[in-house]
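Subgroup meeting minutes
Present: P.N., E.W., G.H.
Scribe: E.W.

1. P.N. recapped why we're keeping a running log of single-chain structure predictions: easier to compare across weeks, and new members can see raw inputs and outputs side by side.
2. G.H. added today's entry (189 aa).
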Amino acid sequence: MTIVEAIKKVLEQHPAGLGFVKIYDEIVKNNLYDFGAIDPQSVVRSKLRQHSVGVDFPSASPTKYFYTDGEKGKAAKYFLWDGKSKPTRNKEPEKYDRLPEEVIDSSHSEHLLQIKNQMMDFIYNSDYGFFEKLVIRLLQKMGYGWDNKKSGFHTGGPNDRGIDGLFSSTSLDLIKYTFRQSDIKKTLQ
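Output recorded in log:
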């Protein structure tokens, strides 16, 4: 029997829910699993969170068997999920109540969003010439043009409503691509 199976067996006997410490105690009392870990209560808590509906982080299991009432720490109760109904939670878990993987994943996502917003603010608040040259460099990095160093050209002036960049796909300039800043800004939004 696995730890998850032992937890499921305990929660089948306690439909009103139990905290992870009580679940651990029931597993030991009924000899459902022989723990070899230094901190077996944390192992039980970790397995509960990995398999709980609404608790998603990179190392969480896609297979869900449990749900929690949303309380924090040892006050949290876990229940066996039927796999159909949508479980309700009282509130989101506090930062200190989450597993380290959950905290890292959440912080990483917030950090990436903050960087994205800072970059977009900088780009939108810069002058038109900077934006036009930025798009040319981006297209060069994406491989547009027959020779990335010679192919992309910035043309025109700021806010002239004309062509802002020119790319050639062959050395003989047989095929040319043009772009306007207004078209690129619409795509970014």
